[in-house]
Specification:
It contains 9 helices and 19 strands. By secondary structure, the protein is an alpha+beta fold. The strands form 4 sheets. The chain has a 7-stranded mixed beta sheet. α1 packs antiparallel against α3, α2 runs antiparallel to α4 and α3 packs across α4. It is globular and about 65 Å long. The protein starts with a helix and ends in a 5-residue tail after the last strand. About 25% of the residues are buried.
Amino acid sequence: MNRNDFRQLLKRYVSGTANEQEKALIDSWYELLYNESITALNTNELESIEQEMWNRIELQANIKSTGEFPADAKTPVRKIIIRWAAAAAVITAIVAGIYSLNPTQQRSFSYEQNKTINKLQEINNTTAAIQKIELEDGSTIVLQPSARLAYPTHFSNDKREVYLEGEAFFQVTKNPLKPFLVHSGTLVTQVLGTSFTIKPDKKTNRIIVAVKTGKVAVYEDSRQLGLNSEQQKNNGAIITPNQKVTYDAGSRYFVTSLVDNPEPVKIEKETEPMPASFSFEDKPLSAVLDELSKNYAIEILAENENIYQCRFTGNITQQSLYEKLELICQSTNHTYEIKGTKILIKGKGCN
């Protein structure tokens, strides 16, 4: 454990995102320093506490390397040092063990553990082609090469739960009474009925969940991370069609954005049918942008009201969404920016 690891551990403690094992370590350190149990560690105290604790750890490391204590140390001081050194040696070893476990090892352990405990079946795609799986409820999963899925022969009465390693596309059969949960590392993706992709990136230690249809809730696995009820309240994100969430397992941050290639959203039978084409003849931008917004289920906003007064003529049926926007903006002398899960049209507009 280096100084930066130690600082990050303290920051997680202060922010309430440390797991139970990490909190126990900080509590024990604090008790050794002040001979009392810690009840709160506010931000203002963090810097001085960090420096004092780190001094003790460095002292322990020096004692370990020389095998000697300061010659002028009095007996009570020597006892404190010995007590601290012994505890710090154990704690440092534990923390080093925590940080030495790379994300892949942690995910693999969780996957294997759940597969064994729950006596799950497994499909492991060892081929170079995609592999399609159909579950008992009619849901289908398309496994990419090197991906694997653990699932039960029969789902429980209240939920449908599977475990994934690698990339896969899910088409989930609707069942409001039995939510569908996909565990991927420390991330849980929960749906009632929808289609989405889960794609981990081992190089960046990130997981991307992208929704094609329906709505998905994505959040951290509280069982694995030891989250309390307060930490679970603001944990995760909800995404809809053409949106994605990127979860960074290192920082444990969720970032929502639009998918790389938005597609028109399939509209249910009871709603208006989708237009056969995106062909416009001298239409105000308010109508053009509204048509795009409805069909792609993406909120498209104008920087100012005058933009809606501009008019557009053209057939942009064959273009992708971003190509459509490029052509519209070129025609009306505007630009567009992607702001999270929304699109903003920028420019002076038309009078």
